[in-house]
Structure formats: structure tokens, C-alpha cells
User: What shape does this take?
Amino acid sequence: MSVEIARLSACELVHRFRRRELSPVEATKAALARVEECDSAVNAFRIVDAEQALADAAASEARWQAGSPLGLVDGVPTTIKDIVLTKGWSTLRGSRTVNPDQSWDADAPCVARLREHGAVLLGKTTTPEFGWKGVTDSPVTGITRNPWNTDRTPGGSSGGAAAAAALGMGALHIGTDGGGSIRMPSAFTGIFGIKPSFGRVPAWPGSIFGSLAHIGPMTRTVSDAALMMNVISGPDPRDWTALPPNGRDYDVRLNNGVEGLRIAYSPTLGYADVDPEIAALVETAKDVLAGQGAVVEQIDPGFADPAETFRRHWFSAAAYMINSLPDDQKALVDPGLQEIAAQGADITMTQYMEAVSARNDLGETMSRFLDRYDLLLTPTLPLPAFKAGEEVPDWQAYPRWTNWTPFTFPFNLTQNPAATVPCGFTSEGLPAGMQIIGAKDADALVLRAARAYETSCPFRMPDNPNIQH
Assistant: This one.
């Protein structure tokens, strides 16, 4: 019975709490039981605080019994990526350079909003060091693995959140995305994830990766992500880059479908190589939306590969971060992160400003393109999950993680909302994802299209970790 409870969506949990058919304590015990059963195989958590979670669940249960829940997600088991500050727990960011023995007395805005709405926090999920790459392993926690095949990576950098979500170790999960770190692991593990418009979910402290970095939901259903957006998009004065509140309820038009929408479909963005199985699955997924009445046209948005533009932004930020460490701590840093920091240190001011200009041009191109189309569809990733513990699937073909993620990081540069929906499985049983991109602040429309696809093709989660090593 506990497995069935753990697999319930957050929306269903709240519904049952309200009808007194289920209690937050039962839901929390079920989620913790899944952690006990599954986490040794996938290594999704750095911290699990069962005692505090059960105490918070008991307090939530009392509120529901009194008919006075705190908010929209009161009693729902939730996890936080170990990049995001969480009061009472250390935030090590996957790094041995962070001293755990310090005061941890502040919540990041999204965590504060979740607490205000009564969420039960189970623990903190794994990340590569400072979230620097597209897979999840770190000097602190080791290798995190894919529930569909534990020999494979779940992607990253929010790989722990993705594995936890897929296996029912919590219903709601906070991820971060500076180049695809919500969408890549969501695609590799077959869950739903959305990178909201930059600034829609307030962030504090600011990321070293600046305006590339977003915070958003990772869930098993689109409805749960919409519910989560209603919570975590609440304003916070600590983030001066945050968008002003728009008063939007992301549930209101979620089920309105896609009939009449003008949707662009770009299978390669004009330059990416895509695994044939992935390409075929995304092609079929695109046809589902066309079958629901969307007007789908195959067309590229019209920009060249912005990989160098992204690298100049990302690698130079990594250089600044690593160079700010004391000399005795630099040797503790993941060797791959040291390498990209060294590359970033060689970027000149002129080259960086060229990248700023190129980013402006890219943003204008996407803004004009999404004035003509309501949404853009692409593959989320060009390949299925590869071997766990490796940064890239093939060192000769893909020198760095940015080389195998051509569909995700462009939309960090442009700050558009972008989601991934699971759209089937390869012949090896590995998930594929279709990416849905909208104009800036069109997060609700992206969620609506994702929900439309989900209604025709319900998402399937793994029963248990498929242990292969």
C-alpha cells in the first residue's frame, strides 16, 4: 500500500488530505519507505531527515483535521536540490570546499514559499559540484544513477531530484537549470521538468552563473508542476532580478488544449545531430499535438549553434568561482571543473563582450520567432542516457558536456520558459524527451501544451530501480 501512496501526485495527495481519506503522516511515511527501498541503488539524496519530516507531517495532519491547511501543498513530501539554501541543513553544493560546520539559518525564496504552504521537506538531492555539468556525480556524494538502468546516468545537474521523482521518493522536487539542468535529467529519467522564464521563480543568493540560472519544478505530472509554480513563483525582495508578480494561476487554463495554436517544430535547430530512435520518438510526439488541433510547421528558428557563446558565459563564470577559492581548496575541486575554469580564465574581455553581443542577437531572434509562433518543439536531448560516472558519452565526439546538450542551453541564453515531456522509450528501454519552448513569461502556455500531450500519452514511471551494475 505504501508504494501506491508514494506514487500519488501532489494534486491527488492534497485532494485526499482534504477529504480525510489519507493523512500527511501516511504520505510522508510512504515517501520515506521508498527512499529506504530505492535510494541505495540510485544515490539520489545527500540528506534525508526522516525525524523532522515526520514531525512536520504530524503538524500538517493536525492542520488538515482542524480544516485549516497552511497553503496549496500542505503535507506534500518534497525535496530540495543541494544547491539551494535550506534552513537547518547544510548546502554543500557537491563540493568539499564548502564548510558544513557553519550557520545554516536561511531558506532560499523557493524553499521559504514551500514552507509557507506547508510542504514536508524530506531532504536534499544530489548535484555535481556547483552544478557544473550535465550528469550527477560529485566529490561529496559519488555517482547518482538512472532508475531505468542503474548503469546509466540520470543526467544533471539536478539528477538526484530526477531519480527521486521517478521512483516516488517525494512528489515535488526543486531543481536548478543553468544550461539544461532541469530538462536534461528529466528527459533521461522520463519525468516532467520545466525551466521557467528567468526571474519568474525568485532566487537568492544569486548564482555565479548569473542570468543563465533558473529554478523550477521537477515532478511526475504536469499538474503537479503547475501547482508547484503557484507556490514558488511568489515574490521575494532578496532577488532584484525577479519578475514582478503576474497574479497568474497556472492551474486555470491548464486543460484548455492546443487547438489552433501555431507550433513550430525543429528536429535539429538547424545544426544538431540526433540519434535516429530519439528523432523518431519526438517526431511521433509532435504529431500528437497536431492531432489535437495545433497547427504544426517544421521550421528552424534561424540561429547558428550558440555553443561558443554559451561557453564564454559559463566557463568564465566557472573561472571566477574557482579562482576565488583559497589555493589549498582548489585542489579539492572536481578535475573537470578545474579544466573548464582554466579554459574560462583564457577568455579575454573582448571575447566575453562578443559573447554578450551574440547573446543579445540570439535573444532578439527568438523573440521575433515566437512572435510568429506560439511554441517551439525540439528534442530535449539528442541521445539516450549513457554510462554513469562519465561527463560525456564519447570523449572524441563530445569533448565537454556542452557538446551533447545542443537543445537545452540556447534557451538559458534567451531566458525562455522551456519544459520537457517524456515521449517514449528507446529499444533499450531508456526514456526520450520532447522540449516545449515558449515566449518569455508564457510559462502557462508551455504547461498547457505539456498537459495536452500528457492527456494523450500518460507518463510512465519505473516500478523499481533496474539494477545493472
